[in-house]
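Note to self: keep these together.
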Amino acid sequence: MTVVALIGTTALWLLYAWLFSAIACAWLSERKGYGDKPGLASGLLMSLVAIPVWLLWPPKPDSKWKIQGPIPGRGSGETVAEARARGVGEDHPS
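Structure:
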């Protein structure tokens, strides 16, 4: 009976890791301007391998990652909409 209990705890931790990778990849892909669905799909299919992939994947020019930085500030700075209105992140020079 102990063997079954040990398999159950291992399966629970693997489930937590799988769900964490899906959440993290969805957040990273949304911040990089690709939407959350590609990140969610890659996080569910590739599990923990997808997190470094999304960390290395280049962000779009007008994404939250480029405008606000990798980690968003809490209540400080401008929003992405305000930065886009100013013309930040556009490919053509002003």
